[in-house]
Amino acid sequence: MEAVTRYRTTDLDLDSAEDPTALAAALQIRGLLPVRPVTKYPGGEWFCGFSPGGGDYDEPEPHLADILAVIEGLDGPARSAWAGCSRRLFDIGYDCGREPFAFRQELSAETLARLRRSVRRCASHSTLTQRRIRPNLAQQPTAGRDS
Questions:
Q1: Residue 37 class from Cβ within 10 Å (0-12 exposed, 13-18 middle, 19+ buried)?
Q2: Helix axes 109-120, 60-72, angle to 10 degrees
Q3: Does the residue 143 lie in any domain?
Q4: Can you tell me the distance from the alpha carbon of 38 to that of 41, in angstroms, rounded to the nearest whole number?
Q5: 8 A C-beta contact, residue 11 and residue 91
Q6: pLDDT digits over 105-114, tens only?
Q7: Taking Cα atoms as reference points, which of 111, 110, 133 lies closest to residue 8?
Q8: Domain presence at residue 145
Q9: How many CB atoms lie within 10 A of CB 27?
Q10: pTM above 0.85, yes or no
Q11: pLDDT per residue as tens digits for the range 119-144
């Protein structure tokens, strides 16, 4: 394994009180790849996970754009199933290595607005997460606080 920190992929994980099999099929037809099958947890909640197919990108924005295009293209029943999900997790993953010392990637305001619109009408929880690469070792003392 290389000791270089780099972007890997962005997954979309969904939880739902209702069986998301039809939604999962709609997402697959539109190009998302199942990475975690539709599964029912012992408590009754359902789960499934997807990854964008196609492009091998160096940063998360193109993958997020691919996922959002699929979501934005959902029709009535699939859109309702999407809205019924209790959790929509956009999980940005990285391979973490020793280099480079500092590593930064950004999301545009347009992509963040699309993420917000994709979940705006949904009454439940949606999350964008990014796995932390390393703690910030160069924190500056806060004004008014003793060092």
A1: exposed
A2: 30
A3: no
A4: 10
A5: yes
A6: 888 999 999 9
A7: 133
A8: no
A9: 25
A10: no
A11: 765 444 444 544 444 433 333 334 44
Judged by DSSP in three states, 107 sits in coil
| Residue of 34, 9, 3, 6 whose CA lies nearest to 104 | 6
Determine the Cα–Cα distance for residues 65 and 71; give it in Å rounded to an integer: 10
State both tokens at 18. Answer: 């209702």
Number of domains in the chain: 1
Residues in the chain: 147
| Domain around 92 | 6-130
Instruction: Tell me what pLDDT residue 120 has.
Output: 64
The rounded distance, in Å, linking the Cα atoms of 16 and 12 is: 13
Separation CA 56–CA 77 (nearest Å) = 31
In a domain, 141, yes or no: no
- Please tell me the number of Cα atoms within 13 Å of 52 on its side-chain side: 23
